Amino acid sequence: MELFPAMPYEDWLETKDTVHRFAQIVGKVRLAASTRRNHWWNVPFHLTGRGLTTRPMGLPEPFSIDFDLVRHRLVVDKADGRSAEFSLIGQSVADFYANLFQVLDDFGVAVEILAVPYDMTDSTPFAQDAKHAAYDPVLVTRYWTVLSQVGQVLERYAADFTGKTSPVHHFWHTFDLAVTRFTGRVVSVPRESDAVTREAYSWEVISAGFWFGDEERPWPAFYSYTAPEPKGLDEQPLWPDWAVWVPSRGSHLAILKYDDARQSDDPVATVLGFLESAYRAGAALTGCDEALVPRIEGVTDPYLEES
């Protein structure tokens, strides 16, 4: 298996647009049926050995929804032992929406969602969207390969941190894979901010991740940002030299393009070095506690070296 296979944005745009909407439908079910956690940690998907999972949700009989991206099936399991699945291939968004909610209805799962895409140019309601129906299994398999490999790199990055850190999780609304380090500082979030922002950024964070590209930046990339952003962040050095700061919605993202990383002599070391440089840029300006500065493998056992 090739490490970091090519994933040109334009090559899989039609499939990506369809799969992203599939993910948002399932993600909205997760949002409605799960127990709320701080910073919305209950909402994203987690990676499995075959794809993505919502994890169990709902009482008194929990259920879960998995994307099996090896067999290209959507699988719904209920704690009473019942299971149902259907193919992801050949489904329009409207078909997918109808099939999923038919399964949930058959299982006695009552859940309501806001059935329109989040933050997409085409906001056709899911139930009416027959346009988005592209699903190339080869490209989806590659998407899964990239997710699984990048996920392991982010797990390695997360392991060096001894403070509060999020899981490595896949956000279905923005279609990125992310992990967040917390400095331990509570911040003052404006009351007029939306509810999502108030919960997500109620603590100071230095976040890192990977996304597959969008209309504004049509290329996959690794990224990092600090929120709230300290003054002068975009003037801090990054490693390697070809990593850059780019403006993003009034703040800045540290960016390392995926293609640049995958073509380097040691892609994993390059990504880890980049993420660490971006973290240190934010930590230096926020005055992050030195106790939280990453140490090898995140070890906190003071007697480990003696054993």
Automatic annotation (TrEMBL):
UniProt protein name: Ava_C0101 and related proteins
The organism of origin for this protein: Nonomuraea dietziae
